Batch of 2 targets.
Target 1
Amino acid sequence: MLRLPDFNYIRPRSLKEAVKVLADLGPEAMAVAGGTDVYPKMKRGQFTPRHLVSLKFLKELRGIRPGTKDGMWIGAGETLTAVSRNGAVNKLFPALAHAAGLVSTPQLRNMGTIGGNVFVDTRCNYYDQTFFWRQAAGFCIKKDGDICLVAPKSKFCLAVFSSDTAPVLCSLGAVANFFGPGGLRRVPFEECYRDDGINFLTKKNDEVLKGILIPRASFGQRNVYLKLRRRGSFDFPILGVAAATSLDREGICRSARVVLTGVASAPKAVTEAAPILEGKKISKEAIEAVAEAAAKVSHPVDNADMDYWYRKRMTKVYVKRALAQLAGLELEPEAGARAAGE
Ligand SMILES: Cc1cc2nc3c(=O)[nH]c(=O)nc-3n(C[C@H](O)[C@H](O)[C@H](O)COP(=O)(O)OP(=O)(O)OC[C@H]3O[C@@H](n4cnc5c(N)ncnc54)[C@H](O)[C@@H]3O)c2cc1C
Ligand code: SF4
C-alpha cells in the first residue's frame, strides 16, 4: 500500500489568509481542495510539497449563482457533484453539467471540486506511475529526470491536459477570477493554459481561483461535450470535444467555438470553427470542414490509453457528432468508429 509522506497541513480561515500563507511559504507550498489529484500524486512521489494549504473550508469559494449582473458565478470550491446536479447549470449549460458528471467516479466527484478540475495535472503513461516504477524505467523531465521517454528528442514535456470541464469553460467564454497577493485578477479561461506539459498553467502558485464567471453573452447558446474513454464507468478523457454555438431565429450561426481536450498539453481551440460556421446555416459540408480543421490541430502522442492515430482519427468523428447535435442534423455512421460519444 502506498502511504502519504510527511507534510504540514495548514487550514486557513479566509481566502486572504490562504493567499498570504501560499505567498509566504513559496514554491514548497501547494493549494489543495478536494485532494483527489494532489494526494494520490503525493503518494506516488510526483508532487513533493512540504506544506499543503487547504481551500476546502473557505466560504468565499462556495456558491452557484445563476443570476448575477454579469452572468453565472460558480465558486471554485463547489464539488463536481454539485455542479453536475445544479438545476440552472443543467438548464443553461448542459455541456458543463455533463462534463462535471463524467469526471472519474461518484466518490471522487463528491470530493473533487471544479477549481481542482480545471487545474488538474497533465498526464502521461510514463509519469502516472509509482515512484518505484518510474525509478526502474528511468525518470523523465516532468519529475526527477532529464529526458522525455515518449519523444527523447523533445525539449518539452508532452504530458496531456485531461480536464473534462476546462474545454467546456473555454468554449463558453468563461472567465477565471483569481485572488492573489495583488488582489483580484480576471483572466479568460483560454488564457489560463500553455502547451507545455510541465508549465501548463499561466497562474502563479500563490493565486487561488475564487470562482468562474460564465458571461451573460453565453446564455442561450447551444452547448455540448462529448468524451472518448475506454471504460464508461470511469476514465480520464483520451479525447474530449466541447462545442458552443448561437443560432438566430432564422437558424443562422452567430457564434461558434470548438475546444478539444486530451490531445495536447493545454485545451486546444479549433480557431477555424468561427470563420467556417458563422454567418450562415450550419450545413453538413461546413461540419466536415471544421472536423478536418480539428484533426489538423489534434496532436495526440503515444503516452495515453489507446493508439494515438486512433485518437487523432476520432477527433474528426467526435467534432462532427458534436456539431451535428448542436445543429440538429443527422450524419451517416462512420466505419470503425465507436458507436456513441458520451
Ligand atoms: C481514479 C481517478 C480518476 C479520475 N478521472 C478524472 C476524469 O475522468 N476527468 C478529470 O477531469 N479528472 C479526473 N480525475 C482527477 C481529479 O479527480 C479531478 O480532476 C478533480 O476535479 C480534482 O479536483 P480536486 O478538488 O480534488 O483537486 P486537488 O487534487 O485538490 O487539486 C488539483 C490541482 O488544482 C489546484 N487547485 C485546486 N483548487 C484550486 C483553486 N481554487 N485555486 C487554485 N488552484 C487550485 C491544486 O493546487 C492542484 O494543483 C481523476 C482522479 C482519479 C484519482
Ligand atoms: S511526455 Fe515525456 S517528459 Fe512528459 S511526462 Fe511523459 S515521458 Fe515525461
Target 2
Amino acid sequence: MPTFCDVALPVPLDMAFTYKIGEHQPVVGGRVLVPFRTERLSGVVTALHDRAPSMQAKAVIQVLDSEPVLDEGLMKLGQWISQYYLAPIGDVFRSMLPLAAEIKKAKLYRITEAGYEALHASATVGSSRRSRQDIDTQMVEYAVLDYLSMSDNALEGTIRSATGANRQVLDLLLRKKWIAREDATSTRDARRTVQIAVLKEVSGKLNENQQKIVTFLQQQEGKAFVEQIRTLDVPRTTLHTLVKRGVVELVEEAAEFSVSSMKKRGPSHLDFIFNAEQKAALAAVQKSVGENKFSVSLLRGVTGSGKTAVYLAAMQAVLEAGKSAILLVPEIGLTPAAAANLHQVFGDEVAILHSALSADERAEQWHRIRRGEARIVVGTRSAVFAPVTDLALLVVDEEHDSSYKQEETPRYHGRDVAVMRSKLAGAAVVLASATPSVESYHNAQAGKYRLIELKERVERRPLPEVELVDMRFEFQETGGDQIFSRQLIQEVTERLQRGEQAMILLNRRGYSSVVLCRACGETLQCKNCSIAMTYHKAAHRMECHYCGYRQAVPKRCLKCDSEHIYFLGAGSEKVEERLHAAFPQARIGRLDRDTVRSRHDFEHVLNQFHGGEINLLVGTQMIAKGHDVHGVTLVGVVGADYALGFPDFRAAERTFQLLTQVAGRAGRGEMPGKVVLQTYHPDHYAIQFAQQHDYLGFYEKEVRFRKWMHYPPFSALANVLVRSDKLDLTLRWTGQLGKWFESTRNEGVRVLGPSVAPIMRLKRDFRYHFILKAASREKLNASLRKMLTFADGEKIPRTNVIVDVDALSLL
Ligand SMILES: [Zn+2]
Ligand SMILES: [Zn+2]
C-alpha cells in the first residue's frame, strides 16, 4: 500500500502537493479533501507512491471517491491542457469537474484561553471612557465571547444571528486572538433524493388499508415512490405501521434529474428526406465514425444547407450502435426550443448542459452521464469534458465561434480540446460551420482534416442578394448623420407592407456609446477601465460594458463643469427608438443583453417573432446565430463594420463571419431574402466577399495576409499580459520580463513589446503586454515556461502574469 499521494489543488501554482495517506486508500483520478495553509481544499489525486517528501507531509482529511472521477483518458487530457496552455493542473481539473456542489465550505469559530480571560475581566472591570461606537462594538464582542463560552464551536452564520455580530467584529476578535477559526469544509451529498417504499415479506394479517398499499406495491413490481403511495386513499400512518412490522422498507435513492417538459422519444424529426448533398455528407461522417479511430472532418455548409440535420442523424446512429456522442454548441445556441428538439430526437438518453443549471443540477447531470444513463451530451464549451465512455463522435457546431475560448484560467479553446479529446479516445470529430475559422480551413486545405461540403441551401433556395450602402455618400447626400439609409427605410417599408418580417443587426447595445463634452473634449470613462461609458436611456444610467460599473448620467462635464454634454454613437436601444419613429405601425422587438436576462426572455422574444407578433426585430449578434425564421425576407446591417478599426488581426475574419451569419437569416422560407448592408468600408475585402457569399475568396485573401504577417495558422501565438491595480508594480514587472525576454536567447521566438495593452485599464488593473510569435509551437511553449519560472523567482505573483496561448483577443 502506498503511503503518499500527490494532489492537484485549485491554487495558482504549477505543481501537485504530497500528502500522507490515512487508513483509507485514495485512487488516482479520485478526489481527496486535504489541509492547505489555513484551508481545506478538495483536489484530484495524480499519483500514489512511497517517496517521502523533504518536508513533513500533512495527512489527507478524507477520501471523497472510491473510484476515479476522471478516467485515464480525461486525466491525460487535463495534463495536456495544463502543458499546452501553461495552466496550473489543479485549475484545469477543477474546470473539468462540475462537482463543486458536493463540497460544503464552512468555517468554525471557538473561544481561546485569552478569550476566556477577557470575558472574565470584562465582568469585573468597568469600561473606561470611550466613544459610543466603541462601547457598542465592545458589547457585541463580549456577546460573541459569551456565546462561544457556552459551546465548543459554532458556525459563522449561527454566531451572527445569535449575537448580531458582523464579519468585522469576528475579524477583530481573531486579531486579538480571543477567538480562533478553523476550516471545517466537508463533503455534502448534493444529490437530491427521493424516498422509495420496497415490499419485503408479507406476514401476519393485514387490515384493509394495509392491504391496499401492499397490493399497490405488488402491482408496481414491489417498488414505488412514497409520493405515489401518499396519493392512495389511506391514512399516512398506515405506511409507517407496515414499515414497523417489516413488511415494507423505506430507502433513499437519487432523484433522477428531469426536464419538466421532457418527453419520451416520439417520432424523430429527422425522418425528412435528405437531399443528395446531405446524404453524401452523412455518409462521409458515418464512414469516419465507422473507422473507430481518430479523424477530423470539417463540415462546411452554407447557411440554410441543413448541417444540423446531418450531424444529428450521425449522432443518432452512434446512439443506436450503443456508443456515445458529444455535441458542443456556442453559448447562445442552446435555446429551450433547441433542447426540446434534442429530446425529440434522443429521448431520455440526452443530457443537456447549459449555463442556467444550478451547481446541484450540474453535478447530477455529470453523474447521469458517468453512470451511462445519458450517452448523448449536448452543451457549451465545458461539455467537452463530459465523462462519457465509448466516445465515438464529437461534433463542434459553429466551430469558428469565439465563445469556445475560455477567457479565464485555464484559457483553453473548446474546439481544440475537442480535437485532442477525440485523439486520445480514438474517436471521430466533426467541426461544422458556414464560415470555418482560417485555422480549421487551412488544416483542411493541408489535408490534415477531411473536408465535407454542403454548397447549396435545402430545396435549392437561393442565398440572399446583398446590397451595399456606402454611408459616406449617404452622409454627403442627406447632410445628416442618419442611422438608417434611405435604401434601408424603403426596403423595410416594402417588407412590412407585404406582411413579411425584417431583422436589423447592430452589434452594440445601450443607447449612446460615447458621452463627450463639447467644451473641453473630455469623454466620460469608466473609473475602473480605460473604456468609454455607455448611456442606457431606459435604465437612465451610464454603464461600463467591460466591468459592469454603473453611474448616474452626468448633467455637467465632470472636468470643466460645462453643460455642453453630447451623446454620440448609436446602440441597439437607440436603434429601437428610431425604428419606432420611422415605422410607427411596426411591431418591434429587441434582443440584446439588456432585454434578455434569461433563457426564458430569449425564447419569449423569438417565439413572438416566429409567431408573427413581432415583425421587425432589432438586436446585437444574438440575432445572427442559428435562428430559422421563415418569414424573414430582409436583414439590415447597421454599423457592423466598426470592428474593422480594432487593433486586432482577427477583425476582418470576425466581421466576415458575423456578416455572413446574419445575412444567412434572410430567405430561409419560400420567399427569397435580401440583405442591406450599410458600411463605411465598402471596399474592404471582408465586406466585399461577404456581399458575394464568397467564403473561399475571403479565405484566400486572409490566409495570404496571415502568412505575410506570420500570424496563425503560420505561427503559434501567445499573449503575455502583466496586470496589477498598482501602476508602479505593473511597470516594474513588465520591465523585468522585458529585460528577461531581451537577454535570453529565445531562438525562433519573436517577442513584440512590451507595450500598453489596447485596453490599458480594465477592472481597476493597469495592463501591459507582450505578443510572442513562433514558427515552432514547442519553442514557444518552452520560452513561456522559462519566463514563468523566471517570474516565479522574481516573486511576481502567478495571478499577475497571464499567459494566453492561441489568444483570440489581444485587447
Ligand atoms: Zn468639459
Ligand atoms: Zn469598467
